[in-house]
Amino acid sequence: MKYEFTADFAERADGLDALSHYRKEFLIPQHKNEDCIYLCGNSLGLQPKNLKANILKELDEWGKYGVDGHFDAEKPWFDYHKRLLGPTANLMGALKTEVGHMNSLTTNLHLLFASFYRPTKERYKIICEAKAFPSDNYMLESQVNHHGFAYADAVIEVSPREGEHTLRMEDIQKAIDDHSENLALVFFGGVNYYTGQLFDMKSITEWAHDAGAYAGFDLAHAAGNVPMQLHDWDVDFAAWCTYKYLNSGPGGISGYFIHDFHAQNTSIPRFAGWWGYTEKTRFKMEHGFEAIPTAEGWQLSNAPILNMAAHEAALDWFEKAGIQNLRDKAQNLTGYLEFVLDQVSSNHNVNFETITPLNQRERGCQLSVLTGSNGKELFDFLTEEGVVADWRDPNVIRMAPVPLYNSYTDIYRLGMKMEKFFES
Fold first, then answer.
1. For the chain, does the N or the C end have fewer beta carbons within 10 angstroms?
2. Is the dihedral of CA 253, 263, 235, 179 positive or negative?
3. Chain center to CA of 250
């Protein structure tokens, strides 16, 4: 696609976009009686219009049946969670027996660490990316401290090289090799929240296994953003939130993955709850935990039906659009954003530096841009102009053109508002 920084090009590109009709299925926040330019789906996705009806349906079922809704509702609550397994497996490249939904992201990571981080005196180290999302850092710190280790010793952070913003894969491999004798776990974000770098999860998993360690991932910024093949890559475990690219609402339920190789092993230690107990005898309320031999065996409590109803509505659009189709559009749309930023930079001799990899295979639909000394002024101006993006100190603007609801016209309008700022 040959980009042009013109309204005509944006209009033509939107007209040729086979996914453009999905935009009308989402509620776009308004600014001065027109659609705002919403580029913050990497923090909170927009509301699908079908989501409200899904929740209201379950509220009606609750009112109609009370507790009997667990079995008598049109979508019985007892096994409502199973409705999400097929679409989620398709999205994550997994088997239906390898995925589930419960709790929130960091809670699920702690639960997964209870099963997959069981350190010994010889193997206790964790390798992760430097500048991971803070909640992951706090989770890692509390996990190693809980087992009697110090963060500075037990956690190895892999940092970008001097003068670089993203990690080189060979540096990740070297860190794994250097610590292979003491390594218990390699834990990375699938996509780094700050830089937007997409990591080669297949290779990281292979290197971790070669070192005798497990491989786990926080997929908060990857789920619904990039295609994955978690089963074929032999990833041991992963978890993700559903309120970013998956559009399931603020604080939406978290998803998780446990490879079938582990899920079938009911003897793996875990923090258990009754919803992970084998279904046939769950209501006998007997002593002695008997795990379901799938990822469902990690479930704890009754399914949060309203959150799951919201997520089911949101997943529907990924089933219809297809994650690979969304990925193709995302690459074109993010490429157009990169082009427009370059045009504005050239027109006004502005020093924008994109710290997200320029190689499209190494990024999702986010660009993180170093903005220079007046970056906060630019961000505040754009906010006043109806642009919803994300500011990160000291001087980075994160922008995510999401293929389900963003358009080429959104990107063109953003560029024109930037032009307005630098011309004023």
1. C
2. positive
3. 14
Within 10 Å of residue 301's Cβ, how many Cβ atoms?
11
The answer to whether 347 and 390 are in contact (CB under 8 A) is: no
Q: Which residues form the domain of 290? A: 54-320
Q: What is the pLDDT of residue 333?
A: 98
Q: What is the pLDDT of residue 1?
A: 82
Q: Choose among 291, 228, 299, 237: nearest CA to 262.
A: 237
The token pair at 50 is 């079908």
SS3 377: helix
Displacement of CA 133 from its chain's centroid (Å): 12
pLDDT of residue 424: 85
The count of domains in the chain is 2
Question: Which of 61, 37, 33 shows the shortest CA–CA distance to 385?
Answer: 37
Cα separations (Å) of 99 from 191, 217, 310, 363?
19, 14, 18, 24
206, with CB counted inside 10 A (0-12, 13-18, 19+), is middle
Tokens, residue 129: 């990316």
Domain co-membership, 120 together with 14: no
Is there a single domain that holds both residue 175 and residue 247? yes
Last residue of a domain, one of 305, 320, 335: 320
Structure tokens at 393: 């100190």
Q: Residue 210: its pLDDT value, please?
A: 98
Domain boundary among 276, 295, 320: 320
Domain presence at residue 2: no
In a domain, 1, yes or no: no
Does residue 32 share a domain with residue 93?
Answer: no
DSSP state letters, 7-19: HHHHHHHHHH-TT
**pLDDT one-digit tens code per residue, 210-253:** 999 999 999 999 999 999 999 999 999 999 999 999 999 999 99
Q: Could you give the CA distance from residue 43 to residue 46 in angstroms, rounded to a whole number? A: 10
236 closest CA partner among 120, 113, 147, 122: 113
Low-confidence ranges of the chain (pLDDT < 50): none
Whether this prediction's pTM lies above 0.70 is answered by yes
